[in-house]
């Protein structure tokens, strides 16, 4: 392989019987009798930009080398350009911070480029190593999409399970605080925001008119689009449930604060006149009634208790509590 060629993460010539062998170079044409060639690159690979400019259409080169992409599908010349987003399984990252995958497909080539590691392509490579390669480039694209959706569905189901347990703790067991609610809502919102464009891109793929997409494959892509739509619907439902849960917790907290404030108001209403009396009788001046009476203190205490009871009865009568 010339020094000016980029080094692929993996390169295979795939045959119609599902077997494959490593490609000796990064030419865009497969070896003799091979159905297609799969080349997988990292965006940071040296010389990838020059190689792409020399071997690929301009539109494909721009998308494959872009720093940021959005899921979409487009036909260019004799090829199909597809950009996807997949679950982020890299250490230290959140799964909802999805990673991009750029794909350029022709009848005899599948070219994929990643910006961050995408474990989805590791699964594809493992299947090829086990002689379970898709027999055509179109079927290879379908498998990549389906494997990607499987990971997306798993992530959506996991978030839904966490939401179920959270609701059970609040509604069934009466928990009044959930520390993980805000991070969960953030993850659901992030994942749903990324899945919306992915769903739209797969919908667009079913409408593409190209010799690369025979009717049977269009049906397969339509099923993938339906799976993406269901995942978006599930995340929408989870988001709404978490919003309702947050509103419920806010209401519980508001009721608790109101009840506590109400009890403090009742206590203040009762003790305010009692405090006035204790302050009044506590002045150190002559002429205070009962100063010389040995039962004066006890009479004052009894009078204050009686006054407190009377105040409570009055508040009860006017339905303060």
Automatic annotation (TrEMBL):
UniProt GO cellular component terms: plasma membrane
The keyword Protein transport belongs to this UniProt entry's keyword annotation: no
Primary site of residence: membrane
Domain of life from the UniProt record: Bacteria
Compartment(s): Cell membrane
GO molecular function terms noted in the UniProt entry: cobalt ion binding; cobalt ion transmembrane transporter activity; magnesium ion binding; magnesium ion transmembrane transporter activity
Recorded topology in the membrane: Multi-pass membrane protein
Transmembrane regions listed in the UniProt entry: 261-283, 295-318
Keywords: Cell inner membrane, Cell membrane, Ion transport, Membrane, Transmembrane, Transmembrane helix, Transport, Zinc
Family, similarity comment: Belongs to the CorA metal ion transporter (MIT) (TC 1.A.35) family.
Name of the protein this chain belongs to: Zinc transporter
Species the sequence originates in: Cognatiyoonia koreensis
Taxonomy of the source species: Bacteria, Pseudomonadati, Pseudomonadota, Alphaproteobacteria, Rhodobacterales
């Amino acid at each position: 392989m010339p020094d000016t060629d980029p080094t692929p993460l993996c390169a295979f010539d795939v045959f119609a019987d599902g077997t494959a062998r490593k490609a000796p170079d990064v030419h865009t044409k497969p070896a003799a009798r091979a159905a297609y060639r799969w080349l997988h690159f990292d965006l940071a690979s040296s010389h990838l930009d020059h190689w792409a400019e020399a071997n690929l259409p301009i539109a494909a080169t721009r998308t494959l080398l872009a720093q940021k992409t959005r899921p979409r599908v487009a036909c260019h010349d004799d090829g199909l350009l597809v950009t996807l987003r997949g679950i982020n399984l890299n250490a230290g990252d959140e799964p909802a911070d999805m990673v991009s995958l750029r794909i350029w497909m022709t009848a005899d080539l599948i070219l994929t480029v990643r910006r961050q590691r995408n474990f989805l392509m590791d699964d594809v490579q493992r299947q090829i190593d086990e002689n379970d390669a898709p027999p055509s480039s179109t079927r290879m694209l379908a498998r990549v999409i389906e494997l990607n959706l499987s990971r997306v569905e798993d992530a959506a189901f996991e978030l839904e399970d966490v939401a179920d347990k959270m609701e059970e703790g609040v509604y069934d067991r009466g928990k009044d605080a959930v520390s993980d609610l805000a991070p969960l809502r953030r993850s659901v919102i992030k994942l749903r925001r990324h899945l919306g464009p992915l769903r739209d891109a797969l919908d667009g793929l079913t409408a593409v008119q190209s010799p690369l997409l025979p009717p049977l494959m269009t049906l397969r892509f339509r099923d993938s689009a339906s799976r993406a739509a269901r995942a978006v619907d599930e995340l929408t439902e989870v988001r709404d449930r978490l919003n309702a849960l947050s509103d419920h917790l806010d209401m519980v907290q508001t009721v608790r604060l109101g009840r506590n404030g109400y009890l403090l108001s009742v206590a203040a209403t009762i003790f305010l006149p009692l405090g006035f009396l204790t302050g009044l009788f506590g002045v150190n001046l002559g002429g205070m009634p009962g100063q010389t009476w040995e039962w004066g203190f006890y009479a004052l205490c009894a009078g204050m208790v009686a006054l407190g009871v009377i105040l409570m009865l009055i508040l009860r009568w006017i339905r303060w509590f």
